[in-house]
Specification:
2 domains; alpha/beta; Rossmann fold; binds cytidine-5'-triphosphate; 36% helix; 5-stranded parallel sheet; single chain
Length: 401
């Protein structure tokens, strides 16, 4: 991909050197377009050597090649990082008094900006209005983060880290093939209380389910994410995405209720959460003690099977997807169990993965197979949970026709 990285005059420019490095490492062709001010923070030789391309700030260089518009026209993606309050104001007004300005006006590619400034400047009504203008024009606003700022201040205004900018900006290049589709995703693991301090739970971190929600939103869907005990850090991208509504649920019963609500409107239901099959028959009001016989054996009652219920009452055109984490002896048994589970639950698709003490749970990586009509394996994917999420969505889109 041809990526233009605009750099404006803020101290965070030093972090953009690393962003350019990451983009080059990922195999992209990068042209850096700094403003004059940006060069006070990081010099031209650094940008040229790191991007392996010539760098200029002026519209009067390379005139024969009409560089002032050619860069923007050829770009597949434009990232401005850091984006100062001044540059944001210029973008909102459509000013083009330097090469970055003309490039931004000449491009039809997706544009992402990573604002960086002091909290007061970020919160100023002028900046807020400019940001809203850019957002309405489809510019992706990445951050800023809340944290330490130069001069010892703290608050929102810190530029996102290069890795975060990379992921979010490259996300803009993904197909938007879920526009107009409403999606309900459950993720995480339920906890069934035993007393005020104990619960029966499981090891699901919610990473795969959250990645499914974020992938769907980035592909244009409206998403409700029903989250059961997912750490804030895992949820970061989902919280930040304007098309994702997060509903928190603790127990299987709460998750069931939230999913039934969300499913009323949803075109696709993805039950990625690890839902407890059973809950303690009684929940003690006060902490059970070692002497209490009730801790030696715990009577359980069965929870409703949420996904089977949703599948049984599905509307025409609604796609229901269940998940299964299995510990089989071999591949044949994995598929056999998955096929039976798909039939038993009455779902359209079942996504199965193998798990164990060392595999599948808190990891960033996953390997899955998607079982469809007649028990056929219609897709398989492995790698980062985000890539696996995209492959699962490809399979869902193919299934919906
Ligand atoms: N599930 C559900 N409600 C439950 C339990 C599970 O909706 N009470 C959903 C999960 O979200 C998942 C799928 O069912 O999408 C498979 O979960 P799993 O626990 O593997 O299914 P079980 O029917 O409990 O099968 P097993 O006998 O292997 O435990």
């Amino acid at each position: 991909m041809n990526i233009v990285v605009g750099v404006t005059g803020g101290i965070a420019a030093y972090k953009t050197v690393h962003l350019v490095r990451l983009l080059i490492k990922a195999g992209h062709e990068v042209t850096v377009v700094p403003t004059e001010d940006a060069l006070r923070f990081v010099g031209l030789p650094t940008w040229e050597s790191i991007s392996r391309n010539p760098v200029t700030t002026s519209v009067h260089d390379d005139v024969a090649k009409v560089r002032h518009v050619a860069l923007g026209q050829a770009a597949d993606l434009v990232i401005v990082a850091p984006a100062t309050a001044n540059t944001i104001a210029k973008m909102a007004a459509g000013l083009a008094d330097d090469l970055l300005g003309t490039t931004l006006l000449a491009t039809t590619a997706p544009v992402a900006i990573a604002p960086a400034m002091h909290t007061e400047m970020w919160r100023h009504p002028a900046t807020s209005a400019n940001i809203e203008t850019l957002r309405a024009r489809g510019v992706a606003i990445l951050g800023p983060a809340d944290g330490e700022l130069t001069g010892g201040d703290a608050g929102p205004g810190r530029m996102l880290e290069p890795e975060q900018i990379l992921t979010a900006a490259l996300g803009l290049l993904r197909p938007r093939d879920l526009v107009g589709v409403r999606v309900a995703v459950s993720a995480g693991g339920t906890r069934e209380p035993l007393d005020p301090v104990r619960f029966l739970g499981n090891r699901s971190s919610g990473r795969q389910g959250t990645a499914l929600a974020v992938a769907a939103a980035e592909r244009g869907a409206d998403v409700t994410l029903v989250a059961a005990h997912i750490e804030a850090e895992v949820l970061t991208d989902a919280v930040r995405h304007p098309s994702i509504r997060i509903v928190h649920a603790g127990t299987a019963a709460e998750l069931g209720e939230a999913m039934r609500d969300a499913a009323e409107e949803a075109d696709v239901v993805m039950m990625a959460a690890a839902v407890a099959d059973y809950r303690p028959a009684e929940v003690a009001d006060s902490k059970l003690t070692k002497e209490s016989e009730r801790l030696q054996s715990i009577p359980l009652v069965e929870n409703d099977d949420v996904v089977a219920g949703l599948a049984a009452s599905r509307r025409p055109g609604q796609t229901i997807v269940a998940f299964a984490a299995e510990t089989p002896r071999d591949e044949a048994e994995l598929l056999e169990r998955a096929r039976r589970k798909r039939e038993r639950k009455g779902v359209d698709l079942l996504v199965v993965n193998e798990v164990g003490w060392q595999r599948g749970f808190e990891a960033g990586e996953n390997a899955v197979q998607v079982i469809g009509t007649g028990g056929a394996v219609i897709a398989s994917a492995s790698g980062a949970k985000r890539e696996v999420a995209d492959a699962i969505w490809d399979a869902v889109i193919a299934e919906r026709g």
